[in-house]
Design brief:
Helices cover 32% and strands 23% of the residues. It is built from 11 helices and 18 strands. The protein is globular. A hairpin with a 2-residue loop joins β17 and β18. The protein starts with a strand and ends with a strand. The strands form 5 sheets. The chain has a 7-stranded mixed sheet with strand order 3-2-1-4-16-17-18, with no helix packed on it. Strands 10-13-14-15 form a 4-stranded parallel sheet. Bound molecules: zinc ion. The site of zinc ion has 4 residues, from loops.
Length: 360
């Protein structure tokens, strides 16, 4: 079996260490005959995009083939993203879970969404009575996660509104947990997120409507936040397109966008586990994890070391992919400089190894 040797500063620790990759495993026990593939630099167990869609093609339609999913995931991989949480896919691709050339996958099934309100052809659209059974079915379609659309525009009201009543939103959480899955909820508004956090959802996606009180509840419960700041920055375009027909909605979206860096900063400061997600797929390109990291640092004030944890070892722990520990998984990226001193180095990995195979 091929063995690789890597020497460098293994983050988050400060010391220079030697590690070996044998097959898909990491060891700190020297392996005779290993080839040195990196000497010097700063070593991380690979980046994680914790909110990504490789089942949605550029433009917003479902992908048409497994090969298209492979292509999109490869763009992330080549940017150093070695694990992805797919936050909802209209195209099932369980075949790719263990594909050697692709990032490790934590997947939801299809988005569970309210009828005739959500993005066309993306979600399973169901009335309140069918939500729990649909969540159960989508838990089986995924490999550990369910994605719920907690709110969206309600055209009659001309503004964001919860997808279903409170009891149904809470029942969705219970159904996911009963099926052994974790549940991630899309929320932009102030109302749906309150219900979902109090019902014990595992992660809040976007979370523009979070209040300080709710942030405290999340911190106490350990509820994660995946802010997708790249997505929230596009709210101006959404507002522009909607303004003629839905002026109240347009105004609301801009207010949520403008307040968002402070929401993320407050969540970080309160101790909410924050993770890096780009929301790639549809209108957002793949391969932008580094940009999201820089936004968390520059706009939300997260220190570089904590952004790195949110984008790497912390997110891997959260998703169940062991990092650079004895017996961990053979995924790593090497950067030429210390990303804690200058986070911009994450834009250009020097070496990428995924599942023990050299990507770069
Ligand atoms: Zn998304």
């Amino acid at each position: 079996m091929t063995a690789w040797h890597v020497r460098g500063v293994v983050l988050p620790d400060d010391e220079v260490r030697d590690l070996w990759l044998v097959g898909d495993r990491v060891t700190y026990e020297p392996v005779a005959g290993a080839t040195t593939i990196a000497d010097g630099g700063f070593v991380l167990p690979g980046l994680v995009d914790a909110h990504c869609h490789i089942g949605i093609a550029p433009g917003g339609a479902p992908i048409g083939s497994l090969d298209q999913a492979r292509e999109l995931a490869a763009v992330d991989r080549d940017a150093g993203v070695l694990a992805i949480r797919d936050a909802g896919s209209p195209y099932p691709y369980p075949e790719l879970d263990d594909e050697p050339g692709l990032p490790r996958l934590a997947r939801a099934g299809r988005h569970v969404a309210p009828p005739r309100r959500y993005l066309r052809d993306i979600g399973v659209e169901v009335a309140a009575a069918d939500v729990p059974a649909t969540v159960t079915a989508q838990a089986r379609a995924g490999n550990g996660w369910v994605k719920l659309v907690g709110d969206w525009i309600e055209r009659d009201a001309g503004d964001l509104a919860p997808a279903w009543d409170d009891a149904t939103l809470a029942a969705a959480v219970d159904a996911a947990h009963a099926a052994g899955a974790r549940i991630a909820v899309h929320t932009f508004s102030e109302s749906a997120v309150e219900t979902m956090v109090r019902a014990g959802v595992d992660s809040v996606e976007h979370g523009t409507g979070l209040s300080l009180d709710l942030i405290d509840v999340m911190a106490r419960q350990g509820t994660a936040l995946v802010p997708t700041m790249i997505n929230i920055a596009t709210f101006g375009n959404i507002a522009d397109r909607a303004r003629d027909k839905f002026p109240g909605y347009a105004k609301h979206m801009l207010a949520l966008r403008d307040g968002f860096p402070d929401v993320v900063r407050a969540a970080y400061e309160a101790g909410v586990p924050v993770y890096v997600g780009t929301d790639a797929g549809g209108g957002i390109s793949h391969g932008l994890a580094a940009r999201e990291m820089l936004l968390l640092h520059e706009r939300a004030g997260m220190p570089a070391a904590d952004v790195l944890r949110a984008a790497s070892w912390g997110a891997r722990d959260w998703l169940g992919f062991p990092g650079l520990v004895e017996g961990g998984l053979a995924d790593l990226v090497v950067y030429p400089g210390d990303p804690r001193r200058d986070l911009r180095v994450v834009e250009a990995p020097q070496r990428i190894v995924l599942r023990g195979r050299i990507v770069r």
